[in-house]
Specification:
Blueprint lengths: L6 E11 L4 E12 L4 E5 L6 H8 L7 E6 L2 E2 L7 H8 E4 L11 H11 L4 H14 L15 H13 L5 E5 L7 H17 L3 E5 L3 H4 L4 E4 L8
Parallel strand pairs: 3-8, 3-9, 6-7, 7-8
Antiparallel strand pairs: 1-2, 1-4, 4-5
Helix pairs in contact: 3-4, 3-5, 5-6
The protein binds adenosine-5'-diphosphate and magnesium ion.
Length: 225
């Protein structure tokens, strides 16, 4: 048991330095969340949803403010960021980022290896997830040989394989029809709850938003000063 929240954000700001014009990408003053919670991150295009997920995955560092996960300051992980990410984060990227030259099963087992899941367990868990996600018969196919819905489910499987404490999904339903969108959201919510992960889903889809009891609304324009 810990006295502090799993995720803690205070006065968080991100500014990208472009040649000439600084871009105010994100401003979020306060957020706390606990293990097992599911939070929707919404706001118009350009309001910083992807930037927030990148900060949460320690892919980028804040310009100002605090972003802390399980007591760790994500802005100062330095060289250990990649390692921390591999062990602690499951990321469903907007463009999925599946490895194009590897089969679906290999995509899962390679990710599992990077996250230190023992080989035997990785295989068991991969097959179990493939079955559950309706991808069992497609395990030998490469991403290009799968439909978008199948690729999106595969990306979800890969993200939750190692039961990470933090699961991030960037517009996971954006390229899907209503039926596939519902399936993918069911899976994310179920699998997140099962492993007691903190789940954050960036979305501007009202139907998706309705499924969350907690919603963080980002404003376009980023920093105010
Ligand atoms: N790498 C980058 N360099 C410069 N500006 C960026 C970069 N990434 C995002 N931005 C800008 O930051 C703002 C927030 O972007 P983003 O986080 O992608 O918003 P959202 O995901 O809500 O659409 C936008 O104005 C976007 O153009
Ligand atoms: Mg985005």
């Amino acid at each position: 048991m810990s006295g502090f929240p799993l995720l803690e954000i205070r006065e968080l700001r991100k500014e990208y330095t472009q040649p000439g014009v600084p871009v105010r990408a994100l401003s979020l003053d306060f957020l706390e969340a606990q293990r097992g919670e599911a939070v929707a991150v919404t706001g118009p295009s350009g309001s910083g949803k992807t930037t927030l997920l990148h900060l949460l995955a320690a892919l980028i560092r804040p310009t100002r403010g605090i972003i802390r996960f399980d007591g760790r300051d994500l802005g100062s992980l330095g060289a250990s960021a990649a390692r921390w990410r591999a062990l602690s984060v499951g990321y469903v990227f907007q463009n999925m980022n599946l490895l194009p030259d590897f089969s679906l099963l290999e995509n899962l087992t390679i990710a599992a290896e990077i996250s230190d899941v023992p080989r035997r367990r990785a295989l068991d868990r991969s097959w179990a997830l493939l079955r559950r996600l309706g991808l069992y018969g497609l395990s030998h196919r490469r991403p290009a040989e799968l439909s978008l819905g199948e690729q999106q489910r595969a990306a979800v499987a890969r993200a939750v394989l190692h039961s990470p404490p933090l699961v991030l999904a960037d517009e996971p339903t954006a390229s899907l029809d209503a039926t596939n969108a519902e399936v993918v959201m069911d899976l994310l919510l179920e699998l997140g709850a099962e492993s007691r992960s903190l789940l954050l889903v960036a979305t501007h889809d009202e139907t998706v938003k309705k499924r969350f009891s907690r919603v963080v609304e980002l404003q376009k324009g980023g920093m105010t000063s």
